[in-house]
Acetyltransferase
Amino acid sequence: MTAEADIESAHAKIRESTVWTMVLGFAADPLMRWSWPDPRQYLRSMPQFINACGGRAFEHGTAYVTEGIRAAALWLPPSVQQDEEALDAIMAQSLRPEITEDMADLRQGMAEHRPPEPHWYLPLIAADPNWVGQGLGTLLMKYALQRCDEEGIAAYLESSNPENIPFYQRHGFKIIGEIQHGSSPPLTPMLRTA
């Protein structure tokens, strides 16, 4: 069995399980826990956030999971955007008032760093903490980047955890800036040419 055989598109029946794998995977993420430091608020808001950020990947067949939904990556194809309206609503309902302006500035910085040319966007990739270190992220990344290379299209992401930057660099991503406002942790935009 090849590594690619272990990757499948997440269909509607496993969407909820895929989202919860990502919720677990981001439970210690600096930016996500700055956004929602209260565990109950995190668990209420994060599934909505994942669906708003990357949910359209399910509709386009570009939400990828490893066997057993142990890890997942939500890729948005060129010209497919996040659900900004849903993101606005989640932020308005769930953020602490003292970080609302910093989050708005972060989101503006993210928009400014997005490449103007068509590109694949990776808003979210995560593994269940029980499966971290098993190479599942590498399988997911290689699978998606093969498509980027075949199409000759760049890939773009923002790393919300500095510890993950070397992982992205091993896959050819280069740092193209830093986004940070007020009390927020840094967000690192990264680009990979095909």
